[in-house]
Amino acid sequence: MITGFAPAPAAAPPGRMLAAQTGMELRLLLRNGEQVGLTLIIPLLLEFFFNLPLLYSLDVPRRIDFVVPSVLALAVMSASFTGLAIGTGFERKYAVLKRLGATALSRRVLLLGKTCAVLILQVLQAVLICLFGLVLGWHPSGGAVSAAVLIVLGTFAFGGLGLLLAGTVRAEVTLAAANLAWLVLLFAGGIAIPLSRYPKAAADLLQWLPSAALSDGLHQVLEHSAGLPVRSALILLAWAAVALPAAARWFRWE
Asked: Which residue, among 157, 162, 148, 85, has the nearest Cα to 120 in the 3D structure?
């Protein structure tokens, strides 16, 4: 016979909190149909237009074989950095995150949950990009596992940078800075234009950017049949190892 109750309120284990937060962030992403549509459609449009030789010349045997890895890298950067930074920045502005800060949810779990939700969405994004690439005549020559490892590392690297930006400055500044960084990394980070077309001194410096590491790694795997590019993976891992802890340390709820 039960004679009394002894409640023991406590926070859920971190793993359960992360799973719940990831699920909630993913549902919030999917409810925003316009944003999801743009996230999925824009890379496909860029894949089509970048494949047109009228835009600019590329010193590659088959243009589509260069375009697909580049668009995959661009999609990761767009969703993990630009989209995540802008969305989180305005959540701070409208005090959405302020209420979460009053719960047992830690900054680290919040940021990881947001990043993991974006990673799940990017699975669908990568599938659509690859399928459309096959329609356009793409001939993948590398391993899917190595490409997936690079995409995961790139997601956490760019996600950490986006959340660091969103958690430390005003939403309006985040909006401008994230879009400007996206444009700069598109052309200076080895995505739209190969680093080999830059002067050697500039290329040696730009290769350390996360966009250059991700793009170069995906090109090595999917275009040149290489295994996992260790240097590219280590660069992305280093960016993630710095950006995510920094975001967790300096992220402000409001």
From this structure: 148
